[in-house]
Amino acid sequence: MNNMPRFDMKGILSIVAVLFVVACLGMVCAGTGLFTGDGDDDEDVDVANNDNDNNDNDNTTNNDNEVASADLGEIVTSTTIDRDGCATNEENSFEASEPIYVVAEDSEVSEGTRLFVRLYHEGEVVEDAPEIQADQDYDSTCINFVFEPTGADFEPGEYEAEFVINGNLADRVTFEVR
After folding, report:
1. Quick one: 34 and 74 in the same domain?
2. Residue 110: which CATH number?
3. Vertex 18, ends 13 and 23: CA angle to 5°?
């Protein structure tokens, strides 16, 4: 008498399960940028040749779709910096108990660029300085990172400090700890 279709609980649960799976897949795909158009597959990347003669570094896109990049000046090491973050005394040899500042002098950095310095001792990674991100465009600025002995002095030997810009290795400087 009643021509209304009958739904059993098993059928309703199946429909709910399918809708749940579809919703979850949609969130996963949106989170990976597959359907949002925010992927950076077509983005141009220019990585430096890891020498101080070529200072063009990686370009990525910041939130305003502008290119985030850095053009590093000369990379130097020092025991101290001035109030502008620039090296006060270039040094290539340090005592084991001294702080070591790694400074990119006279650098250009665009807003959104991410940078840090990785420290190596005789070819082995020792430490990564905390990453920073430019909150605005910077012109003719000094970018500095400091490495300090904590708990024990630096091991004597050859060291290298390498700037990492937007996840790519860039310019570097070598020095010695006595």
Report:
1. no
2. 2.60.40.1930
3. 125
In this structure, which long-range contacts are made by residues 32-38, counting pairs with CB atoms below 8 Å and at least 24 apart in sequence?
none
Least confident of 34-38, 51-55, 65-69, 174-178: 34-38
**Residue range 7-19: mean pLDDT, rounded:** 45
Backbone φ/ψ region at 16: left (φ over 0), alpha (ψ -120 to 50), beta: alpha
Backbone angles phi, psi at 55, to 5 degrees: -105, 20
Check whether residue 16 and residue 75 sit in a common domain: no
For the entire predicted model, the pTM comes to 0.64
Q: How far is CA 80 from the centre of its chain?
A: 24
Instruction: Tell me: do 14 and 72 sit in the same domain.
Output: no
Owning domain of residue 70: 60-177
What tens digit of pLDDT does each residue of 41-98 get? 333 333 333 333 334 444 444 444 446 899 999 999 999 999 999 999 999 999 999 9
Cα–Cα distance between 98 and 7 in angstroms, integer?
Answer: 77
Question: Which residues make Cβ contacts (< 8 Å) with residue 49, sequence separation at least 6?
Answer: none
3-17, 35-49, 61-75, 128-142: least confident range = 35-49
Whether residue 169 lies inside any domain: the answer is: yes
Tally the domains of the chain: 2
